[in-house]
Amino acid sequence: MTHETIQEKLSEYFDGMLNEHESAEIKAHLRGCESCRLALQRWEVLSLTFSRTQGIKPSDQFVTKVMSQISELETPEEEKEAESLSIFRRWIAPLVGYGFAFALMLIAITSRQPTVTAEDILLNQIPQSAQWMYSDDSSDMENLMGM
Amino acid sequence: MEVVIEDYDVIQEVLQGNPNAYAVLVRKYEERVRRYCFMTLGNASYADDAAQEVFVKAYQSLAKFRGDASFSTWVYRIAVNHCTDMQRKAARQRTQSWDELLEKEGEKMEELFSASPQTKTKIEHADLLAQLLSHLDEKSREVLILREMNGMSYDEIAETLGISLDAVKSRLKRTRQELEIKLKHFLKVGGV
């Protein structure tokens, strides 16, 4: 094999993918070829670095997360609906009820008209100085008499 | 004695109405799928989200699994396609050029490639390696991660990526040569 052919096959040689005959030929070439030898040594360093630097460790938490997503997928639609209905019954329905009652109270308070009594109408027709005679409130009488 | 349960038997159990049995498969392959996602996407948090989606997708398609390939090859194929989609959708832009990366992380690179096999793995080394891989093109990165980090055979890689054996050989050779040139300065060998 020529140097170029060996360069083509070097990666397969590195991975142990060549037959015995090809491997022997490359081994013989490597004894006299520094550039191929260095290439192989550098790949070895790269390979060791990759296998040493995995960065990821097994994680039970990961398995749990996947399985909870799968359990979610497996929950029948009726159950999901029943669950959302139960949330509605437990929380949303009472909230809506209270809200409605509160709104009614607000409306009642804001739309309340001031009440006008017969006494107010009659007193309006009488001069202020004489109003004490018709008033039920003794403090009014004292005020009007300047006491 | 440990009882070895075949993936195929677990899949049958899941399909017969026991979804909890799927946890056996998730536990068996999660580390390798998450590692692939991490090295492809370069971010541990995105990687875990992506890996979860991979397992959920695999579960949803389990009825279509015919057993022509092994479950591991099948789930890796889903992972490769999913990560490729994610990268394309996000149109992830590299924030720094190769030269900027070398300039900024030169010391860490030295440390990464000169550490002895007994050296404890540091998480920043894994991040650095992921950054480094992000500078390879998609096809080169896929084949290198599957071979070097997930330890797949050429046949398994071909099946996972849906490419010929010759394409696997040629991509691996090209990727190694590219990295050898790019990282020559850091790959100290035989006193060179």
Which chains share the greatest interface? A-B, 40 and 53 residues
Supply the number of helical segments of chain B. Answer: 9
C-alpha geometry of chain B: elongated
Order of helices and strands of chain A: HHHHHHHH
Distance between the termini of chain A: 133 Å
The profile of the biggest β sheet of chain B is: none
Main beta sheet of chain A: strand number and arrangement? none
Percentage of residues assigned to helices of chain A? over 70%
Low-confidence stretches of chain A: none
| Global mean pLDDT of chain B | 86
- By DSSP, the count of extended strands of chain A is 0
Task: Give the end-to-end Cα distance of chain B, rounded to a whole number of Å.
Answer: 50 Å
How does the overall form of chain A come out from the CA principal axes?
Answer: rod-shaped
Q: What multimeric state do the chains show?
A: heterodimer
Radius of gyration of chain B: 18 Å
Which residues of chain B sit in consecutive blocks of at least 5 with pLDDT less than 50? none
Give the overall average pLDDT of chain A: 80
Order of helices and strands of chain B: HHHHHHHHH
Helix content of chain B: 55-70%
Classify the beta-strand content of chain A into a percent band.
under 5%
Instruction: Please indicate the percent range of residues of chain B in DSSP E strands (runs of 2 or more).
Output: under 5%
Secondary-structure topology with pairs:
The complex is a heterodimer of chains A (147) and B (192).
Chain A (H helix, E strand, L loop, with lengths): L2 H12 L5 H13 L1 H19 L7 H15 L2 H34 L7 H8 L5 H4 L3 H7 L3
Helix pairs in contact in A: 1-2, 1-3
Chain B lengths: L6 H9 L6 H20 L2 H17 L10 H20 L7 H17 L8 H11 L4 H12 L4 H8 L3 H18 L10
Helix pairs in contact in B: 2-3, 2-4, 2-6, 2-7, 3-4, 4-8, 5-6, 7-9, 8-9
